[in-house]
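can u do me a favor
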């Protein structure tokens, strides 16, 4: 038959396409060319919520397919977050000879009856947190005992799992950011974008986030894909994180985690956005706090997309 073949590499790259007719028993070669269209120097593309069939037991992406799709979508800092296990991609990455494409991070989706929490980075031989605990303070304390962990993310806070919706009205007063169980919050970040679990009101989690900030919580914003399948795009939601290197295989994991926790990041569901101050004398990185002058502040916002997108 006749097919349309499309090649791409995530939000930062253009696409190329061609029609291809194949007859039974024939072999055809097709060369497609793409180029980077969105510059992201000084930031690396991170997906903090990535699964495999191999270790999560559902979806359809084997660990080999996950590594290929991660490289194919231009994710430079993927966090392995299979359920209640610590997984290291590096042995398979070496076997596939794909080490140049990204820096893998050992993580875990701590999957409990009262919420799901992505944690990273994790030492290779670290013990598992206790996912059978039933209150957030106990769970967070168990997570913080896991060696090397810096980031603790509340995942898909409005989703229903085990008959519990963590940021739903039975547990959380969204307007004031108050936990109705008396637990406080605990995680230092939350998913505002989960491209695998998008709310009907796409701004709902943003409103929840502002409620938490107004309550005095220090919570950073995360974009992630929660991809379990080859056909559910890894990196569909992603987080761009400040980095001193643009080499995808040489990313400093500790630096990246520090920047996530400091808010030196930008979240995306297809567009790349950056914010800076026009003054060359002020700190301009996202996440910094500055003081307004008598004349106010000039803020520069850049929203960029590849040519195939229609923002």
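np, heres the sequence
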């Amino acid at each position: 038959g006749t097919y349309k073949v499309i090649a791409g590499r995530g939000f930062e790259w253009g696409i190329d396409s061609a029609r291809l007719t194949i007859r039974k028993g024939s072999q055809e070669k097709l060369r497609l060319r793409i180029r980077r269209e969105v510059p992201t120097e000084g930031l690396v593309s991170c997906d903090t919520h990535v699964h495999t069939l191999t270790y999560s037991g559902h979806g359809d992406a084997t660990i080999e397919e996950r590594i290929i799709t991660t490289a194919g979508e231009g994710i430079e800092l993927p966090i392995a977050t299979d359920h209640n296990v610590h997984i290291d991609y590096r042995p398979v990455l070496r076997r596939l000879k794909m080490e140049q494409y990204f820096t893998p991070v050992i993580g875990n989706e701590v999957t409990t009856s009262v919420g799901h929490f992505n944690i990273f980075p994790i030492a290779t031989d670290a013990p598992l947190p206790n996912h059978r605990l039933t209150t957030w303070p106990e769970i967070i304390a168990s997570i913080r005992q896991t060696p090397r962990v810096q980031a603790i993310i509340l995942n898909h806070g409005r989703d229903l799992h085990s008959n519990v919706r963590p940021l739903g009205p039975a547990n959380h007063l969204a307007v004031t950011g108050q936990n109705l169980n008396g637990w406080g919050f605990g995680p230092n970040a939350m998913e505002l974008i989960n491209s695998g679990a998008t709310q009907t009101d796409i701004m709902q989690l943003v409103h929840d986030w502002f409620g938490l900030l107004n309550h005095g919580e220090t919570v950073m914003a995360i974009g992630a894909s929660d991809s379990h399948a080859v056909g559910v795009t890894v990196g569909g939601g992603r987080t761009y994180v400040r980095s001193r290197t643009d080499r995808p295989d040489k990313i400093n994991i500790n630096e990246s985690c520090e920047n996530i926790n400091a808010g030196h990041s930008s979240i995306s569901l297809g567009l790349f956005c950056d914010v800076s101050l026009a003054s060359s004398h002020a700190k301009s990185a996202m996440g910094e706090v500055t003081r307004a002058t008598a004349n106010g502040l000039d803020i520069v916002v850049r929203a960029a997309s590849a040519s195939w997108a229609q923002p």
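The CA atoms of residues 121 and 149 lie 5 Å apart. hope that helps!!
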